[in-house]
Amino acid sequence: MTASAPLDGGRLRALIRAIPDFPEPGILFRDITPLLHDPDGLRQTNDALAEVARDYGATLVAGIEARGFIFGVPVAERLGVPFVPMRKPGKLPADRASVAYELEYGSAALELHRDPSVDGHRVAIVDDLIATGGTAEAAAQLVAGLGGEVAGFAFVVELAELGGRDRLAPHGVTSLVTYQGAE
Ligand code: AMP
Q: Is pTM beyond 0.85 here?
């Protein structure tokens, strides 16, 4: 078996493609499906995210629907800590908390079960991508509202020009690949 190439920024960039004008004109969509199609790249991405969460001292991982589940579960499994899904409204069956937030057009909400609980945990929040940071900020409010301490955020992709990380201060924000504009 040959050793896999290390996951440097260039290799990861090559596994993320840019699709113009999706889901609407003017949006450059960063598509991670080529990364999911590459077993080595995916494993190394999850290893790198797990390292970030370990450095945060996370005792629980929270993933944001839906692509945050793809990366959040392997991170939790690598750390040997619980995973909780933060879901769009109407998906969680048991007693739950909800936080609404603003999108560019309209609004959205995230929900989290009260039990199993984040209470007393140091929580690493995982998603595939940070753009404006609104979704991640809502996730942090949800965790804090249920007694969790936000340990930090881990993303595969950061769209730096949108300034999302400033919105999440003073929490730690780590992303594996950062884009400036349409590069
Ligand atoms: P935001 O709340 O603006 O940080 O948006 C983050 C969420 O929207 C993440 O769950 C992303 O999956 C998704 N998202 C926003 N912008 C993009 C983009 N340009 N390409 C891919 N996904 C995006």
A: yes
Q: Following DSSP, what letter does each residue of 113-167 receive, concatenated?
A: ESSS--TT-EEEEEEEEESSSHHHHHHHHHHHHTT-EEEEEEEEEEEGGG-HHHH
Residue nearest to atom 18 of ligand 1 (CA): 29
Catalytic residue flag (residue 67): yes
**pLDDT single digits (tens) 129-183:** 999 999 999 999 999 999 999 999 999 999 999 999 999 999 999 999 999 988 8
CA distance 96 to 110: 10
Does the CA dihedral 132-87-48-56 come out positive or negative?
A: positive
Distance CA 129, CA 135 (A): 10
**Residue that is written with structure tokens 């960039």 in the block:** 13
Q: How far is the CA of 27 from the centre of ligand 1 (A)?
A: 10
Tokens of 80: 């040997």
